[in-house]
Amino acid sequence: MFPSKILVLCCLATLFQLGCQNKTTDNEMSDVPSTPPDQDQTASSITSAFFGTTASGDSVDLYTLTDDQVTIKIMTYGAIVTSIIAPDKDGNKADIVLGFDSLDPYLQQHPYFGATVGRYGNRIANGTFSLDGSTYTLATNNGPNHLHGGLKGFDKVVWQAELINDQGQEKLQMSYLSIDGEEGYPGNLSVKVQFYLATDGALYIDYFATTDKTTPINLTNHSYFNLNGGSDDILDHEVYIKASRYTPVDEGLIPLGQLAEVAGTPFDFLAQPMPIGARIKEVPGGYDHNYVLNDWDSKLNTVARVSEPTTGRTLEVLTTEPGMQFYTGNFLTGIPGKGGTAYEQHYGFCMETQHFPDSPNQPDFPSCWLSPGEEYRQTTVYRFGVKDQE
Ligand code: GLA
User: Fold this and answer.
1) Which CATH entry fits the domain spanning 87-160+178-190+198-386: 2.40.50.140, 3.30.1330.60, 2.70.98.10, 3.40.50.970?
2) Which residues approach ligand 1 with their CB closer than 6 A?
3) Which of 137, 201, 233, 256 yields a CA-CA distance of 20 to 30 A from 341?
């Protein structure tokens, strides 16, 4: 760690303490609190260190967010969450997300471990959409389709990081300007993502964006969780998802358009919590589906709960989004990860809170369009805990 860097960060934090006000607009999501209501002065702290250099010579920093329970690392390359260390029921700490120990493997092809995904997370059919009579052609990187922002999405760029102080809560803010035409998208899109650890043992992720031309947008986080610490599969994890319906897909994982009921199917994680492995074999390839979250009102709602029986670790997911991709690491094929662990199929699961896949081509899905003068907002919370012991 460089003393000059610490000095700069301290100065920035102080400046923001004096002057930073959270932006509010009168759009539909302006009532989403960016700071939890019961927020007291935080006991968390944020530090940074040099992590490495990209092939084009850009320096990458790794930020550490810590409180007395949880330690989270996030780097400026891809605004990627590289590590979340959380205690189990006996207080033993372990890293509960998949990833790598150093920067280099992240610079190679990998399955979006921990990444901030954009400009449009998930798929856009045939990498094309129409808007105001014009047809736009996006980069295609998943068969004929566009996936997770294209060939060089937000997961593969270096973000600008700064520390801000928002009403006593210290936050790590990552910024990125996606220029007009990048990966085929219209408009200069200015994106900010704020990460912070709140006193309730939760990682808050607040997304903000503005544009100078109408564009589709769908930002999410692609962390692969494994609540037993990543050395075994996630099939014993018990999952509750607050969704009565999901979006069935074709063989290219593009939604067919209709919403299907989960009741009576292997997709039903609503009636009661179900181990991921209980019915996964009935789903060809495993779960990789968008759930239509119940009671969506653009406010922060609890949408999923996961618990791991051996360690007692739990994860609760809250979001302002209408959908959540539940993905069970179906495409993991022995990738060498942290500590030399080979990440095999189903070694991690993702809960990618989002607008529905292919929304730009599906007028009946919730709107994913952002126009000049509007502000995009998305908040997702991953709350870590342990199951109450009987
Ligand atoms: C998403 C997709 C999956 C897969 C992973 C990355 O979750 O829905 O099909 O592409 O990303 O491997």
Assistant:
1) 2.70.98.10
2) 111-112, 122, 147, 253, 288, 325, 327, 331, 350, 352
3) 201
